[in-house]
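User: structure tokens for this one?
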Amino acid sequence: MSKIQIIGSRRIMEEIIEFLHSLSMLHVDIIPEDMREGISYHIIPLQRDEIAIKERAEKILKKLKDLMLLLYQPSAAVESREKKFIVTNIVSEGMLSDYNILEVKLRDLHKRRAELAERLSLLERYERILKGLAPLISKLSGFKNIESTGLIIDRDKSGVIPLMEVEISRITEGGYQIFKRELDEKSIGVILTYQKDYDEGVRGLLSEEGISEIKLPADYAGLPFFDALKEMVRKKEEIPKEITDIETELNRLSDEWYWKIEELIDVLKDLIDEFKTLDYCTGTKYCFFIFGWVPKSYLPKLSNAIKERFDDKVVIRELEIMEDEIERVPVSIKNPKLVKPFEVFMRVLPPPRYDSIDPTPFLAIFFPVFFGLILGDMGHGLVILIIVTLLYLKFKARGEQSESKKNVIQDLLKVFFLCSIYTIIFGFLFGEFFGELGERFGIHPIILNRGRAIKGFLILAVGIGVGHVLLGFIISLINSIRWHKGREIIGTFSSVAMLFTLFLLIATLSGYLPKGFLSVGIILTIILFPIILLSEGIIGAIELIKSIGNILSYARLMALGVASVMMTLVANKLGEMTGNIVLGIIVASVIHALNITIGIFSPAIQSLRLHYVEFFSKFYKPGGRKYAPFKKTRGGVRLWRRL
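Assistant:
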């Protein structure tokens, strides 16, 4: 990363800001205090007309964002073309007025649709009753000067109907009609008709006995019961068409306005960003200063572009990055195409500091190896390979997802595609094809049999841990040398030497080396341990002990690998015990499928843990600032501030 300062005449400040915006290279930053010494710098304030434009732009932007919530995204995007916008036009009151009219229309459509949907939902709740009572409605439609009431009675309480008839007959002096119909297996629909003179007495009886009366919606409360039911049936048929008409109009407006508004939102964001960038600009009476960062590979291109556009009117100075500002330097991470998918696992961690190292390439090397070492079965690897390939093709063809979500899914599938390849390779080396079934096809272990050579597998796993942890120390050592950090160089080198000394002592005491090495180990310990304390303090000694635990933690590669082998063995044995080929295949397949499912998640989680905790802790320094260039949201658009 290069630290630069851009200096130019105040007269062309707005022009250079817009030009830098279009180049999308410079990470604009606040000018450090030490650079202000000796010169009367001050923040360049916005002019009155610029403040007015900024405020109107923010107001219109909020309006447009609200409008986007009322529009549907059309399936096909409009092809972006290079356009020019005059700032005074896009922030004019006339522009705001046009969108106010559109907003009123959209909100009215959404309100009508919501009301109709609510009505339809309400009517659908009456659908069971309407369908059940429809035949009765036609029979009673000729009755005049009568009151009618609809009732719902539970089937298990149907005995109340004769008793109710006796009381209603008494109240109405026999002047009533009652019609019954089964609505469903749980309830009976009843329509009760009588002369209006007896309405108060009948309703008092129903209320006293707690019989459920059909309560009509408020819109139909003033209508006679039969007329209300007929109107509800008619409305239920008409409402879907009205909703469809509204949806059609919303789709039409969305097709007409969505992409225009989205483009204008991006343009306004860019305009506001340019005004905000002025907060980072300092200057004197005659010139301005812009401070920032740019990747070293971009610097020649940036310099040439500014030179070609402004000639000698603008000067770029590359400044030395001071040791005390390392934490402020933005971090730009770029990885090769094969490594890039593994960045998906680094997003859960804060970016590395500028004086740290991006661990993604190491993750890309070791993660698939650990995954394959744990699962290590050709059959399981082939199944995962097929599943991942099919999912990748499916998600690649689907276009309804957001681009970021789609990229994450595709990156994960690419990672597991590579993991499945390593699983097949290790399965071949271990002689496993759905467990010991490989032996029946002439497949035999090449390096070891994981189910039997458990001790050898454990030594292999711990040996990998030794190499992996030492690699972390070596990376830290190289990085310390690169940044000329003397104490860290001594401390890291002493820690590596002390680890070798401890292994020497363990090997000697275990009888793997001659006894003479014991004296060598003790002498080295006496020399190295004080050096660690002096260079890194007590923390260095604790980290050394922790590193031994880190190495032993790699034994989980063996434990999980053996567990996978045992599960495949159980699957095959249970399949054989059924005594039926078809049933045996089903039983074995189910257990193998469970093992594969566990085998996708468990090795991935444990491999990541070994990297995050055991490996990264040796050299990774979090807390970096992500490189965020001053970049236009809408490419191919130029803002003209003046006519």
